Amino acid sequence: MRNIGPIVLLGSPGAGKGTQAKRISARYGIPQISTGDLLRENIQFGTKLGAQTKDAMARGELVSDNLVCDMVQERLHQPDCQRGFILDGFPRTPAQAGWLDAFLEHKFFENSHAGGTPPIVILINVDYNQLLRRLTGRRTCVANGHIYNVYLQPPRVDEVCDLDGSKLVIRNDDREEVIRERLTAYEQQTWPVAQYYRSTGRLVEVDGGLPADQVTEQILEEIERRGAVTADGH
Ligand code: AP5
Questions:
Q1: pTM for this entry
Q2: Atom 54 (ligand 1): residue with closest C-alpha?
Q3: Which atom of ligand 1 is least distant from the CA of 212?
Q4: CATH number for 200
Q5: SS3 state of residue 154
Q6: Counted domains in the chain
Q7: Residue ranges around ligand 1 (CB below 6 Å)
């Protein structure tokens, strides 16, 4: 099995991070770590973290750096991350990016086979009008998390998952007024993260406005080209 190392997916709400993370995960057999999904699970199961983050998420604001970094740290220590992982929606503030750099350098790789591989950071660019259409049209399978879009990637039968016939649901924060807040949070707090990675020469940008298959092609090409994928032990 090849070692992959860390992959960071950056992009505005609706850019396609979740869609692409699932494809990269299937391609390389490494886990997708979506901080949004982890937070939603905590809310769904009524955990303490869920109670602490629920209101901020409902308003479309970012939750506090400390809570998110602790959650990510716990997840990255799971054995399935040893060959690599895809961070979807993290880091999202300069503080989170600094935390990740320190974590990867000092802690994570001590016992990992993926020792010393720097993260490949991929920014998925999509224009504003397309983002709105994607977010207002998104539907997600309640059972397996597969993502559809009523305008762009509709299921064969309305509101029903093609894969297992489960119901499709609208995400709580995909209402128009919350979408606006999320896009503002991205511009103000996450855009500087992209600038940070650009300044360190680690940022790869892809055109996320293309059909999903073509976006995947660009991403896989970049991952292979940038050498994030290495043969085990070499
Ligand atoms: P999170 O769950 O991360 O949401 P997000 O960043 O707003 O991103 P989305 O999931 O909305 O979009 P996506 O880029 O994954 O797009 P998708 O693939 O679904 O975060 C939610 C909240 O959690 C935040 O607001 C915050 O409160 C909190 N949070 C999470 N992480 C945090 C952190 N690190 N720090 C602090 N707070 C945090 O695609 C969207 C739609 O477009 C779908 O319908 C899809 O079918 C369609 N689509 C995708 N690609 C294409 C394509 N190429 N062509 C046509 N349609 C496409």
A1: 0.92
A2: 211
A3: 53
A4: 3.40.50.300
A5: coil
A6: 1
A7: 11, 13-19, 35-36, 39, 56-57, 60-63, 68, 89-90, 92, 96, 134, 137-138, 147-149, 152-153, 173, 182, 208, 211-212, 215
